[in-house]
Amino acid sequence: MIRSRSKKVLLVAPDSFPSRLLDQYENVNHISAVTAIFPSIHEFKPDVILFDHAHMNEHMERVLRRLRSNVFYKNIRICCYKHTESVRNDATLKVLGVHHMIYHDDLQKVSKSKHALNAINQIIDTSLLKWLDGVGN
Questions:
Q1: Which helix (H) or strand (E) holds 81?
Q2: Using an 8 Å Cβ cutoff, are 45 and 29 in contact?
Q3: How far apart are CA 52 and CA 69, in angstroms?
Q4: What is the pTM of this model?
Q5: How far is CA 105 from the centre of its chain?
Q6: Local structure of 43: helix, strand or coil
Q7: What is the pLDDT of residue 1?
Q8: Which residues pair with 79 in a beta bridge?
């Protein structure tokens, strides 16, 4: 998962993309046309580009090679969202410059653990409030 939250994210994905990936970002520019990637980069100047691997399909390698070959793009972090893990394909993407791989299964685990953590925190908060209420009386 991405640890530091950047200010500007360029999302290259179809319209039905999981929005919880981008909840903590301030400014997200979403495009779905592969031909609009580089004009959007020059206009928006993103810190992170998040690609949907299934949406990019055969264009992924060409775009990544172009991003890595130009010095203008060297400070942009590249992330890739995939439905399933593939060791060979993921290794190729890493070599081409992808910094982070985000899998659909990982999102499911995070949301389940987040719900469990929220439930535990609510129980602790409730018992703490009851304890404080008893001490105050």
A1: strand 77-82
A2: no
A3: 21
A4: 0.69
A5: 13
A6: helix
A7: 47
A8: 50, 100
DSSP string, 82-134: ESS--HHHHHHHHHTT--EEEEHHHHHHHHHHHHHHHHHHHHHHHHHHHHHHH
H-type helices in 5-103, by residue range? 37-44, 53-56, 60-69, 87-95
Read off the tokens for 77: 């972090």
Mean pLDDT by 10-residue block, N- to C-terminus, for the chain (137 residues)? 64 74 71 89 89 88 90 88 86 89 73 53 50 52
On the 0-12 / 13-18 / 19+ scale of CB atoms within 10 A, 95 is exposed
What is the residue whose two structure tokens read 């925190």?
A: 121
